[in-house]
Design a protein that fits this description.
Number of strands: 23
Structural class: alpha/beta
Largest sheet: 7 strands, mixed, barrel
CATH topology of the largest domain: Aconitase, domain 3
Shape: globular
Number of domains: 4
CATH architecture of the largest domain: 2-Layer Sandwich
Helix content: 25-40%
Radius of gyration: 26 Å
CATH superfamily of the largest domain: Aconitase, domain 3
Length: about 650
């Protein structure tokens, strides 16, 4: 974008050898969650991951795509597979011509991109191995994709998480809280662990015929036994493409899924990014009344805190068929490997294994997927009369509307000079937030709904927008006024400088009181910094996580470690990323966020240089510590000197 090349340090390449094959009843999703767990444990941020080995032969291209698509979740710059006959088979299935297929094969062989198992093994920076026959059915959660849980351990895992201290694996309930429940209307009690959202939704899971057909067939088998989804479960189906709908209809599975409440809600980002819509008002009230830890089970890629739904504190990733299974079971406390998923019309217990589709059923359904489905659907994929009918103004420049609450002229270029000004040291910076580990871009810039009493809601209300028309942060990304007010406003952010709070709160250094992050930032007269732990900025690329940080007046983020994409985005907005030296963090240095920070960055700044930061406490004593400047390349240094990539590009255009 913006005509700028992509610069990066030459990456390490981690080899990931696959052997064996998946057992019956184990899905590509189960395999991918195991790989995410392994790669996060190994550490592949900023690295490439190449998958290879004998086990590749048993993986279809959609299975491989499911693995590669979760590269952001395991932290790699990219995950990739070499090209082989399975790649060409998918090209045939998806309607490519034999001429195109032959061209791809010839090119890949000539360029050394073709995989031949008889070739000598490549040399890698590091090597991991997974025997696919050891993979078990699993979920991941309750708050991170890498926290995999075997299906057989799921019930006990969830029970333990309820009383475990608040963190990635715990919710911090007391023993007295465990027995709480709430009556929903006059119909039923809502309890801890009840699944209130079950959504077949994702980028690649919902484009993978193997798992999508398995979900439909499981729904069919459940329907035949008279099983239904529990009444407190909100279900949805967002196919990965219109071809999925086509092969569902060809197999009659659309009717089976709809009978269980899995109706097609559209194509695109839905529940996974927080677009599930509200729960029933009685259910939301019941959750609040007893502080219930209710669950969601989705086939998406991300389950970060506050992302799927603000009322749902336990979100688990699972394969599409397991999503259907948990919708029927209705609770995370059920051990689906040993306990009945429900009871049929005759009152007989039904096990998950009774409903799981056989290989023969899957093969029969797969056989109805044809190249013509792809050709017909994609022949008109860019045509949409309703989209074309939307009026637009013909103008060489966008006609900004001052009264628009969706698209507004951003303030990124206010005060921009023709020449970049000399870099000034950051002096007397106050801490806006002190955060822990694994702060995601969803924590920094949530994409879902927002309340009327928050800064973003108040801004819209003042302009006459009704709460029912607020929409979401994601839909208002063209309005910087909304997005900066939503920065660090995730309902699950825990700012250590505002103890006892959860959500977008910060210490207002001007008043000494706790206020919203936005108000605290706007009241501060000088620069601000953020202190954070490891894996800062994991998750979606979410450019507004960096833009919003910049608009709040944050000049630097000092973290134990950064996720690659967010670090790059911070540089792109002129925010300085700094890392503590290995073995150090804010706590080990005795920093609590009440200090003033002097960061001696100047025009002489170099890529990956060290700086000595001075943190002065309120009693006049100070802590001096060394940080690494995470401007990784000379080009990033140039971006920073210019105040970010936008300023750099504009100045280059003006020359």
């Amino acid at each position: 974008m913006l005509g700028q090349p992509i610069y990066m340090l030459s990456p390490d390449v981690v080899g990931f050898r696959l052997t064996g094959s998946l057992n019956a009843g184990v899905t590509a999703t189960d395999m991918t969650l195991r790989i995410v767990e392994m790669l996060r444990e190994h550490g592949v941020v900023g690295k490439f991951v190449e998958f290879f080995g004998q086990g590749m032969a048993a993986l279809s291209l959609p299975d491989r795509a499911t693995i590669a698509n979760m590269a952001p979740e395991y932290g790699a710059t990219c995950g990739f597979f070499p090209v082989d006959d399975n790649t060409l088979s998918y090209m045939r299935l998806s309607g490519r011509t034999e001429e195109d297929i032959a061209g791809v094969e010839a090119y890949c062989k000539a360029q050394g991109l073709w995989y031949d198992s008889s070739d000598p093994e490549k040399s890698y920076t590091a090597l991991l191995e997974l025997d696919l026959s050891t993979v078990e059915p699993a979920l991941a959660g309750p708050k991170r994709p890498q926290d995999r849980v075997d299906l057989s351990n799921m019930a006990s895992h969830f029970e333990e998480s309820l009383t475990h201290e608040v963190g990635h694996q715990g919710h911090g309930l007391s023993q007295a809280d465990l027995s709480k429940s709430s009556l929903v209307g006059d119909d039923y009690d809502l309890n801890h662990g009840d699944v209130v959202i079950a959504a077949i939704t994702s980028c690649t899971n919902t484009s993978n015929p193997g798992v999508m057909l398995a979900a439909g067939l499981l729904a069919r088998n459940a329907r035949k036994r008279g099983l239904m989804v529990k009444p407190w479960v909100k279900t949805s189906l967002a196919p990965g493409s219109r071809v999925v709908t086509e092969y569902y209809e060809a197999n009659g599975l659309d009717k089976d899924l709809a009978a269980l409440g899995f109706n097609n809600v559209g194509y695109g980002c839905t529940t996974c990014i927080g677009n599930s819509g509200p729960l029933d008002s009685d259910i939301e009230a019941a959750i609040d009344e007893s502080n219930l830890i209710v669950g969601s089970v989705i086939s998406g890629n991300r389950n970060f805190e506050g992302r799927v739904h603000q009322k749902v504190k336990a979100s688990y990733l699972a394969s599409p068929p397991l999503v259907v299974a948990y919708a029927i079971a209705g609770n995370l406390n059920v051990d689906l490997t040993t306990e009945p998923i429900g009871f049929d019309r005759m009152g007989e217990a039904v096990m998950l294994s009774d409903l799981w589709p056989s290989d023969e059923q899957l093969s029969e359904a797969m056989a109805k997927i044809t190249p013509e489905m792809f050709r017909e659907r994609y022949a008109t994929v860019m045509q949409e009369p309703r989209w074309d009918s939307i009026p637009s103004e013909a103008s060489p420049l966008y006609p900004w509307q001052d009264d628009s609450t969706y698209i507004r002229l951003p303030s990124f270029f206010q005060g921009l000079s023709k020449e970049a000004k000399p870099i000034e040291s950051i002096h007397g910076a106050k801490v806006l937030l002190k955060l822990g580990d694994s702060i995601t871009t969803d924590h920094i810039s949530p994409a879902g709904a927002f309340p009327a009493d928050g800064p973003a809601g108040k801004w819209l209300t003042e302009r006459g927008v009704e709460q029912g028309d607020f929409n979401s942060f994601g839909s208002r990304r063209g309005n910087h006024e909304i997005m900066m007010r939503g920065t660090f406003a995730n309902v699950r952010v825990r700012n250590q400088m505002a103890p006892g709070t959860e959500g977008g709160y910060a210490l207002n250094h001007k008043t000494g009181e706790v206020s919203s992050v936005f108000e605290a930032a706007m009241d501060n007269d000088g620069p601000m910094v953020v202190l954070a732990g490891s894996q800062y900025g994991t998750g979606s690329s979410r450019d507004w996580a960096a833009k919003g940080t910049y608009l709040l007046g944050v000049k630097a983020v000092i973290a134990t470690s950064f996720e690659r994409i967010h670090r790059s985005n911070l540089v792109g907005m002129g925010v300085l990323p700094l890392t503590f030296k290995e073995g150090q963090d804010a706590d080990s240095l005795g920093l609590n966020g009440t200090e003033s920070y002097d960061i001696p960055v100047t025009d002489d700044v170099q890529a990956l240089q060290e700086l000595n930061v001075i943190a002065t406490k309120s009693d006049g004593t100070s802590v001096e510590f060394t940080v690494d400047v995470r401007l990784d390349t000379p080009v990033e240094v140039d971006y920073y000197r210019n105040g970010g990539i936008l300023h750099t590009v504009l100045r280059n255009l003006a020359q």
